[in-house]
Amino acid sequence: MKMLSLEQELKGNSYPGRGIVIGRSADGSKAVAAYFIMGRSENSRNRIFVEDGEGIRTQAFDPSKLTDPSLIIYAPVRVLGNKTIVTNGDQTDTIYEGMDHQLTFEQSLRSREFEPDGPNYTPRISGILHIENGTYSYAMSILKSDNGNPAACDRFTFAYSNCVAGEGRFLHTYQGDGNPLPSFEGEPKRVAIPDEIDGFTKLLWDSLNEDNKVSLFVRYIDIASGKYETRIVNKNE
User: Fold this and answer.
1) pLDDT, tens digit, for every residue of 3-35?
2) 160-204 per-position pLDDT tens digit
3) Backbone angles phi, psi at 96, to 5 degrees
4) Which residue, among 228, 177, 178, has the nearest Cα to 32 in the 3D structure?
5) Which run of H or E residues covers position 219?
6) What is residue 112's DSSP assignment?
7) Are the C-beta atoms of residues 61 and 44 closer than 8 Å to each other?
8) What is d(CA 114, CA 109) in angstroms, rounded to the nearest whole number?
9) CA-based nearest residue to 45, from 170, 215, 199, 193
10) Which domain holds residue 154?
């Protein structure tokens, strides 16, 4: 698979929707995760990321303008032992609870489908990072309608072991802007992952469409120690 420029992928798409990037830093020492949200409506744009324990959650920037919290207020990131879960919806909790009861990442998501927001039927995208005894692997999932047919759910899981330094995968909800919004197609995209968290955070934030970007989360986890650094950027401050 060709290595793509994450900067160009984002700058060339005014509305990738919500996106997850998972990979390994160029020096091989860090597991890396990033998650961003975008919005077209006032309700979607009226959000910020806030820290919540070892994870994060979304909350309304202006509570008086919140009209429908059902698909926009959730915990995108939670930590279960040596596993970090990153998703674009409340399936974060489904994965957390499933894995806490010895289900696999894929099994935990069997009870979920794409979002009930027809005609878009936004895909549910999820990722999990697993660090154990100095080893690192990750997996990504997308649950999407069958070519816009809400009667059928297509399920794809992609697992990556012995992760290559300086590489990651990028999965997002929409191919681009449209009405209805066209769902992501194909495998997660192969992209470069740099060593430095602040530089990576700036690259991502600056590459997202200025009108539509809302919030960004980036975390670098030391594979040897499990210690991590986190960056959060909110357009609403």
Assistant:
1) 999 999 999 999 999 999 999 999 999 999 999
2) 998 999 999 999 999 999 999 999 999 999 999 999 999 999 999
3) -55, -50
4) 228
5) strand 213-222
6) -
7) no
8) 11
9) 215
10) 6-24+39-234
Can you say how many angstroms the Cα of residue 24 is from the centroid of all Cα atoms in its chain? Answer: 15
The per-residue DSSP string of 122-171 comes to: PPEEEEEEEEETTEEEEEEEEEEEETTEEEEEEEEEEEE-SPPTTEEEEE
Task: List, for residues 40-93, the tens digit of each pLDDT value.
Answer: 999 999 999 999 999 999 999 999 999 989 889 999 999 999 999 999 999 999
Q: Which residues pair with 149 in a beta bridge?
A: 146
CATH, residue 223:
3.60.20.20
Cα 162 to Cα 26, 74, 151, 192, 217, distances in angstroms: 14, 31, 37, 16, 24
- Whether residue 1 is contained in a domain is answered as no
